[in-house]
Amino acid sequence: MKDALKRVVPERLRPGIRAAFTRLRSFGWQRYCLICDSRLKGFLTHGEPPETDFRCPVCHSKPPHRLAAYYFNDHPEIYREGGTFVHIAPESGLGPYLAQLARGRGMHYRSGDIKGVGDSHLDLLALPFADGSIHMLYACHVLNSLQEDRAAMREVRRVLHPDGVAVLQVPAFCTANDTIETQGHDERMRVFADDGIYRCYTNADYEQRLQASGFIVECVRATSLPDAQVRKAALKQEVLHACRAGLR
Ligand SMILES: [Zn+2]
Question: Any idea which fold 62-245 has?
Answer without folding.
Answer: Rossmann fold (3.40.50)
